[in-house]
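Title: Prediction job returns without error message
Component: structure pipeline
Severity: low
Priority: P3
Assignee: unassigned

Description:
Job completed but the reporter wants confirmation the result is attached to the right record. Sequence as submitted:
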Amino acid sequence: MLDNIAAELNSRPRKRHGFRTPAEMLDDILAKTTENHGVA
């Protein structure tokens, strides 16, 4: 039940993120992190 609520909230676009979802923002952050540090 809580997983469904979290998924619903994370798939809802936010004005503060330029109408992108929190999940999309997290993907961008993680991609930048792996670009900067590389993957072992």
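Comment from assignee: result matches the submitted record. The CA atoms of residues 32 and 38 lie 10 Å apart.
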